[in-house]
Amino acid sequence: MQASSPLLVVYYSRSGKTARVAQALAQRLGADQVAIRDRRTEGRVSIWRATLDRLLNTLPPIAPVAVPLASYDLVVLGTPVWGGRAASPMRRFLSDYATGLPPVAFFCTMGGSGAEGTFTDMQARLGKPPRASCAFDAKTLDNDSYLDKLDHFASQLADAVRPPLRRQPASDAQVHPIGDAARAPRDSRPATVSPPRPRSAR
After folding, report:
1. What is the pLDDT of residues 96-130, one digit of tens each?
2. What is the DSSP pairing of strand 176-177 with strand 32-35?
């Protein structure tokens, strides 16, 4: 499987909020995207399971990520905040794939706090700092008030690859789901789009 973009968005989403940010970001950047899947369940992980994972520091089994991670210029990692740290499926991904990752960027969705601890934990697990990071308050996702922050983050990411990407308006953007992201449930699957147009350097 070949990369169709210099950028890849890898995310875990329990409730769909992190998926919303990941898909909107991928649309703006014409990025590939992959959803991390917790193999313990085919549906939504319960709150009690998420809490137990945090308390016991569990690293659950996840579906293999059949993507050439090293072929990307930048991999953007997105996770909800669970108890001040990245969600356990994201921590499993970092444990399994850290050595094969190129430069990275982070984003998280949270109920009000915990971004700093989450990004610190992710950086420690990777052994390198992110090129950029951004935290989204989950309360802003329902009314689209997060979009200005998303656009600023997308601009940072576009400038982090060489040559820099031209960030596309949301109406013209392309989505390239890979693996589980391509098989996401209907309510979280990216909209069907036409084949991507060639990117030109800024």
Report:
1. 999 999 999 999 999 888 999 999 999 999 999 99
2. parallel
**In sequence order, what are the beta bridge partners of 38?**
62
Q: Return the beta strands (E) in the chain as ranges.
A: 7-11, 32-35, 74-82, 85-86, 104-110, 133-137, 176-177
Angle (CA) 31-69-149 rounded to 5° is: 40
pTM over the 0.85 mark: no
User: Which amino acid is present at 160?
Assistant: A
Tens of pLDDT along 82-104? 888 899 999 999 999 999 999 99
Q: Round to whole Å and give the CA distance between 148 and 146.
A: 6
CA 167/CA 156 separation, integer angstroms: 10
What's the DSSP call for residue 38? B
